[in-house]
Structures are given as C-alpha cells and as structure tokens.
Write a structure and sequence with these properties.
By secondary structure, this protein is an alpha/beta fold. The protein contains twelve helices and twelve strands. The strands form two sheets. The chain has a ten-stranded mixed sheet, sandwiched between helices. 47% of the residues are buried. The chain binds nicotinamide-adenine-dinucleotide. The site of nicotinamide-adenine-dinucleotide has 21 residues, from helix 4.
Length: 360
Amino acid sequence: MTYRIAVLPGDGIGQEVTPEALRVLAAVGKGAGVGFEFEQALVGGAAIDAGGTPLPPATLDVCRAAHAILFGAVGGPRWDDAPHEQRPERGLLGLRKELDLYANLRPAKCFPMLVDASPLKRSVVEGTDIMVIRELTGGLYFGEPRGVERFADGGSRAINTMAYTSREIERVARVGFEVARKRGRRLASVDKANVLVVSQLWREVVTRVGREYPDVALEHVLVDNCAMALVRRPTQFDTIVTENTFGDILSDEAAILAGSMGMLPSASLGGTVGLFEPVHGTAPDIAGKGVANPIAAILSAAMLLRYALNMTEDADRVERAVVRVLESGHRTADIAGPGGPVVGTREMGDLIVRALEAQA
Ligand code: NAD
C-alpha cells in the first residue's frame, strides 16, 4: 500500500519542523512495509511570494488527491500589512473551507516528565489527558448577518450571528462520540444552554445522537463551568465537544496545561481528506535558528496515522518514541529544565527516529 501525503510546510518554523515529521513517517513506513509518497506544495506567505496568492489552485489539487495533509504553519511579520484576502492565514482558512474540515481535534496531554513546565500545580495537572473537539466551520465566526452599521449621529452598531443547523451539530457530535470511543468513553458536550437558544438546539441534538452511543457516558457542561473546571480539576475530562467560539477559547486554555506550544499537535477532520498540523504558529522569534521543537509536528504525524490511515499501532509507536526521548532527558530549548541537555530541531528529530527504529 502506498499513501499520498500532501506536505505544506508554509512559513517560518513550519519549514523546519515539517521535515522532521516526514522523517518519522518515512521510518514508520519502512517498519510497517507501507509506502509514503510526499508531495510538497506551497501555502501561506511562501505561496504569496511565489505567485501572489496564499492558496494556489495547484496546492488545492495536491491536497484533494492526497490521503492526508501534513501542514506546518503560515504567517509572519513580512506579510502583516498585506490586504485581507492576501494574508497567509487565508491559505489555512481556505483549505478548511474547501475541504469541509468541520471538526478540529486538539489533545492536551500532560507528559509526566514535563509536569513542572505547566503553569498549574503538579497535584492539579498530573494525569491530564484531554481531547478537545471544536466545531470549525459554523457558529459566530461565519454566521450571517454580520457587519457594522454607521449612524448619522456618529454612533454605530456591529453584529455577528451565532447560528447552527441540526445537521452541523449532528456531524460534529458524531466525531465527538467516535473519538471518545477510541479514548476513555466519556464525552462532555459544552454549551451555554441556560442563555443561548443555539445552545439549546446543540444540547437537544447531542443528546439525540448520544442514544446511538450507549457505551459513551455523555454529560452536558456549561461553558463557564468548563473554563473553571479545566484549571481546577482538568483530570475530570476525557473528550470535550463544543461549538466554534467556545472551542477556540477552551482549546487554548487546555493547551497551556500541557506546557509548551512546541508539544501540541492537532487534526482537522470532516470531508474526504484530513489536515494535521502543530497548534503553534511560525514563531518568527526563533525561525531560521534550528532550535524549534519538532515534537508538535511529529505528534501531528502520529495523529495522521491514527485518524487518517487507521494505523493505530504505528501512531502508538511514534508517541512512545517521543516519550522515550523525553524520558532520556533530551529537551529542546522551549521545554528545557535548568541545566538539562538542550538539543536543536534536527537532533530531536534524529533521536525520535532512532527511538522509533529501536522498537521495531
Ligand atoms: P507562535 O505559536 O508562532 O509563537 C508563540 C511563542 O511560542 C513564541 O515565543 C515561539 O517562539 C514559541 N513557539 C511556538 N512554537 C514553538 C516550537 N515548535 N518550538 C519552540 N518554541 C515555539 O505564535 P505567534 O507568535 O502568536 O504567531 C507568529 C506567527 O504565526 C503569526 O504570523 C501568526 O499569525 C502565525 N500563526 C499561524 C498559525 C498557523 O499557521 N496555524 C497558528 C498561530 C499563529
């Protein structure tokens, strides 16, 4: 079997960490007797520089023809003054829209050896292992009507609309239950049903879908309670599913529990092809120095194996290799403790590939 992987490194450290993830996938392929064909394509600032647009049609074609997409990061100060439609992040937003990627998965896992990098106390954060699933294509960020009215008296009024159809809720709820099934079989659906009618429909639909998953324990949590519980007792959560705006905020809150941005992978699922990318951006402050942490990109490759190719054991193997290397004390600068050995991007990639090969 040969899998086609569209590779979109993008800008800044995206170009440094993505090659390490590819080396890990190549090593997995060798061990599992599976072929990977990597097809590189331009996106974001790199694509703007080459052809004036952040998501060239050729890139979209490469993505549509692939089994999965491995994405780096886009953006940077060079393009900050570009007009709205020509900003690098339009490349990522365009991909999500064109490929109908409506479910964003972000794990927030506290690695035992990095507990002290968390801003929370060890006793609170130890054992945290949460998956936040955020609806990505509906709700407040896309709802109509939207806009600003300017009045003759100098005042103004701005509107955004939070709208969801039962179909949009149902499909992301299903992702929530399916993912919970692969994890601890507990799903918290987060809403604001005491105030918002949109949330009342959300709760009704999630409850209905939940009847098809009697093996998954469903609870409904109000978003304000969830925000508090995440910092008070994060271990109470297994899988969380929520709408776009709440998910945007809660997934960042959950992310900091785990320590560094350099450790966090993500997946966007929905249409026929999934997109896998580190949560972090292009890190202009360290780009080009060879010091970026490639683990978020490598764990994104593990999510690609798990969720796009159903190669569960290989995904486990990659995650174990990452843990082994961290256990051996090696750290990139962002997660280094005082006095520990610090390695660069490439060296961290080498160590993880070697740890992976040692398991074969
Ligand atoms: P960022 O994630 O790029 O950086 C935040 C901080 O975390 C920086 O100090 C950076 O050095 C550090 N960091 C991030 N990833 C790291 C890694 N792998 N290893 C070590 N340290 C790491 O966020 P930002 O500074 O707000 O944004 C920079 C640029 O990235 C902006 O142009 C922004 O629009 C873009 N961005 C893109 C994406 C994406 O493509 N998905 C996401 C977020 C930000």
